[in-house]
Amino acid sequence: MLNWTQSNLRIGMTPQSLVLSLEKGSRRKSVKFIEQRFIHPENKGVIGHLCEQLSALVQVTKMKASVASLTLSDEMVRQFMVEPPQNVSSMQDLKAAASARFQVLFGDSAANWNIQADWQIENRFMACAIPKNWSDPLQTVADTCKLQWKQIAPQSVAAFNRWKKLLPASAWLVMYQPGKLTIVITDEKKLVSAYRHVQCSAEEISEEKNFKTLLSREALRMNLPIPDNVCFPRILTELIWVLNVRSGKTTFRVLSNLIPDTVQMTPGIDLALSGV
Q: Which listed residue, 195, 239, 246, 264, has the most CB atoms within 10 A of its CB?
């Protein structure tokens, strides 16, 4: 069980930046943010480089902690839905189905990927894959900085796990990172699909009218009705208009009221706070 009397380090990682969020205290928590942006495009997304920078940043800021959560931007992982085969009888059958689905979708052998999932025998489930060669760099960070990984997950999974109990019966959970919109679709508070619109610009979400147009387009692409409920884990600058929407066919809801009052909410900080 997590000991909340200790400092808890939350890390947001994108191919371009790292954000550290350090929580202290058991009742009234204080939060400290440190953000580092990369300026060397040749190292963009290289896990070894990212982990070296992370280790150095944790040490130089003296933000060592015994428990840490790492949230990756969705573009850094491969996510897909798996239909469990008929007459499935074991975890091995589910893992084989996930590996086969991975190869069909990405044209790549699953042997070089670490696939984790919300394994279910009777329902479709989401699986996430990260390269197996990430294990050593991440373990080196843990050893060097005396960290115990509580969770390593993409943003969409971390956000769904955190907010699923507060979601309406059916909803779209929407997250934004620069250039990309992630949509997690739920039904009866269960994750039923995930969709990433990788070419979403800030202009397409910064006004209510434009965002509703985008929702209609994506619903059409997925052969789904326009959602009655759209939820956001928290509000970025691009989505500030959501706070002023009063009525309409689609209800917009912000799930978290935790908005740092001393720093500008950036995509990196949003990642670090996933799960909060």
A: 239
How far apart are alpha carbons 11 and 36 in whole angstroms? 11
**pLDDT in the model for residue 86:** 87
Spell out the domains of the chain, with CATH numbers in brackets: 8-73+132-154 (3.30.420.40), 76-128 (no CATH), 167-254 (3.30.420)
Q: How many residues does the chain have?
A: 276
CB 226 within 8 A of CB 215: yes
Distance CA 143, CA 148 (A): 9
Say if CB 144 and CB 155 are below 8 A apart: no
Tell me which H or E stretch contains 244.
none
CA nearest to 84, candidates 76, 92, 93: 93
| Model pTM score | 0.86
Tens digit of pLDDT for each residue in 212-223?
999 999 999 989
